[in-house]
From TrEMBL:
This is GTPase HflX. Keywords: Coiled coil, Cytoplasm, GTP-binding, Magnesium, Metal-binding, Nucleotide-binding. It comes from the Bacteria. Residues 197-358 form the Hflx-type G domain. It comes from Pontibacillus yanchengensis. InterPro entries: G_HFLX_dom (IPR030394), GTP-bd (IPR006073), GTP-bd_M (IPR032305), GTPase_HflX (IPR016496), GTPase_HflX_N (IPR025121), GTPase_HflX_N_sf (IPR042108), P-loop_NTPase (IPR027417), Small_GTP-bd (IPR005225). Its cofactor is Mg(2+). Monomer. Associates with the 50S ribosomal subunit. Belongs to the TRAFAC class OBG-HflX-like GTPase superfamily. HflX GTPase family. One of its GO terms (cellular component) is cytoplasm.
């Protein structure tokens, strides 16, 4: 059984933050702490006009925190905002316990959760880039670290060695990530050449994306009621009720104030979203802040230039709703991922969404051309298929993506 650390959470409430948003960021920080196996013993809030440049909060507040740490045996203090290297140094001197900020906490969870080689590399890169400016205190003169003769040897301090070691490791990881990214691009290019239709599941962390992914694909990806349960994008083939086949990708959960180092590090993972033809946005309908969560995801999609893609909003966790629920975004479907009837409704709604983007077609296919019939059943949504005996032809009617090569093939037949 893993030992749980006793944690104190410290936060500044600035005039620019509205009360609701501030409270939800604290709740989120508490959930993140629990996910990282910590127990929040106390939350200390200070209302301030602006953050104290040297020690984040006022001196009186820091003294109060110090007294509480000594009295309760607190092992770790987590600050709700990203601290500067100077603040971190000064606070460590004042409080004499381990100190981390929101970004480090998220990085720590990501490090626990990454499964694939790429995921692990990306987390390590983000951690090292975060650590680099924080490895030494202020005032350490590193100007003589120019490289070359005279910089090596006994005159070098351990911190400078660490710094060089970290920089080397960063360069090494970037190279490895580039290789993985190139492989991924080739894989995506193959999928595009095969004209596979791609659906990406996105959503706020813990909205139930992986559960839904598993229900749809009958696959057991990591599914747990925890923040950031999925870090590595999984792609599986799914078949819709009409027989149409698509590729479905599960992606990393978004979060408000996601550290920029992480967005940068997970760029290639998130590219699954930008490559998609259609987006399924999963929202935890039972969460009090679900509207805020929706907005955060929309904002991230905009940053990824994926906000123009057709989308179906899936309001999940219907079983936890006490009152009647009104969707904020349309088209939408309200479901419980555990209800097979709801999954069927989701499929129907998904097909409806595709039809809006697609064009109708009708064609005659010779009974001997089994290959074309098969391809139409997999790459189009077929609504009618009748055999005309005297002509030995199939009459096929349905909808197809206007860019699919099959569409042009059908057009030529007329």
């Amino acid at each position: 059984m893993e030992q749980h650390e006793r944690v104190l959470v410290a936060a500044c409430h600035l005039p620019s933050q509205d009360e609701e948003r501030f409270q939800s960021s604290l709740e989120e920080l508490t959930s993140l702490t629990e996910t990282a196996h910590g127990v929040v013993d106390k939350i200390v809030i200070q209302k301030r006009q602006k953050i104290h440049q040297a020690i984040y909060m006022g001196e009186g507040k820091i003294e109060e925190i110090k007294a509480y740490i000594d009295e309760r045996g607190i092992e770790l203090v987590i600050f709700n905002d990203e601290l500067t290297p100077g603040q971190m140094n000064n606070l460590a001197d004042h409080l004499e316990v381990r100190i981390i900020d929101r970004t480090q906490l998220i990085l720590d969870i990501f490090a626990q959760r990454a499964n694939t080689k790429e995921g692990k590399l990306q987390v390590e890169l983000a951690q090292l880039q975060y650590m680099l400016p924080r490895i030494y205190g202020q005032g350490k003169n590193l100007s003589r670290l120019g490289g070359g003769i005279g910089t090596r040897g006994p005159g070098e301090t351990k911190l400078e060695t660490d710094r060089r070691h970290i920089q080397r490791r960063i360069d090494d990881i970037k190279r490895q990530i580039q290789q993985v990214a190139t492989q991924r691009q080739q894989y995506r290019k193959r999928r595009k050449e095969n004209k596979a239709y791609q659906i990406a599941i996105v959503g706020y962390t813990n909205a139930g994306k992986s559960t839904l992914f598993n229900r749809i694909t009958n696959n057991q990806s990591f599914e747990e009621n925890q923040l950031f349960a999925t870090l590595d994008p999984l792609t599986r083939q799914v078949q819709l009720p009409s027989g149409f086949q698509a590729l479905l990708s599960d992606t990393v959960g978004f979060i408000q104030d996601l550290p920029t180092t992480l967005i940068a590090a997970f760029r290639s993972t998130l590219e699954e979203v930008t490559e998609a033809d259609f987006i399924v946005h999963v929202v935890d309908a039972s969460h009090p802040d679900h509207i805020q969560h929706e907005e955060t995801v929309q904002k991230h999609l905009k940053e990824l230039n994926a906000d123009h893609l057709p989308m179906l909003t899936v309001y999940n966790k219907k079983d936890l709703l006490r009152d009647s629920f009104i969707p904020v975004t349309l088209p939408a479907v309200t479901i419980s991922a555990y209800d097979p009837i709801d999954i069927k409704r989701l499929f129907d709604k998904l097909e409806e969404g595709l039809l809006k983007e697609w064009v109708p077609f009708q064609t005659y296919v010779p009974a001997t051309d089994g290959k074309l019939l098969y391809r139409l059943s997999k790459h189009a949504i077929v609504r009618e298929r009748d055999f005309i005996e005297e002509d030995e032809l199939y009459f096929v009617k349905g909808f197809i993506h206007p860019d699919h090569p099959l569409y042009h093939q059908i057009q030529k037949r007329h």
